[in-house]
């Protein structure tokens, strides 16, 4: 069977095609939905970490001004709204339809039979853009760009707070280590998610036919993006890395040191001086 690229754009039409043994319709569509949900969840996970570190270091009064369930409820509501908005865009704008299959037969005539049997997400503006779909698509792009601005802002503010904050050297070291980890986790969505999505939006709205190399690269980058966060955590956090190496039997577990501290209690007894009776 011929191998197909994962991301195709041509004549104001975009197609993201499933590959692999579970690509057949309709079962592969479930995994496609999980992939889309995992993508936005990973972005929100990194953003939540940045916002929490920012509030913890730069705005600690907010954590003590309200009960703990208040910020958790607000953060949870934001995450639910953003995730629901993203999945609504996937369903209403990119979900498979008979109309797209008709268009794909004209754009990719040699691949239309396989496209009809394979799970995918796609959108076409070839015969004119649907205002609702176009508006929802642009709104999701603006949402992603807004989320992309939160992480650098929090990183700069955290860096400033670490310079002027009167914390111990060990505490500052731990926070700087976490800041480096979060910075790498910010670079991963930029390189693996925002840049490929930006290229696909550009090709879609400009009607450019994507070159074969970019079709492969975009698919590979977006496929490995959900794995970037746990990999960076394991690489940068020594405790997680040692735990994984021990579980894989690549490293011996560190011996546990138990020490007993002897407490010496000294007592002084004072005898009364004899009194002289006159």
From TrEMBL:
UniProt entry keywords in alphabetical sequence: Membrane, Transmembrane, Transmembrane helix
Pfam families, sorted: 7TM_GPCR_Str
Organism, as annotated: Ancylostoma ceylanicum
SUPFAM superfamilies linked: Family A G protein-coupled receptor-like
Record bears the keyword Phosphoprotein: no
Xref: InterPro entries: 7TM_GPCR_serpentine_rcpt_Str (IPR019428)
Domain of life of the native organism: Eukaryota
Record keyword Transmembrane helix present: yes
Name of protein: 7TM chemoreceptor
Signal peptide (from-to): none
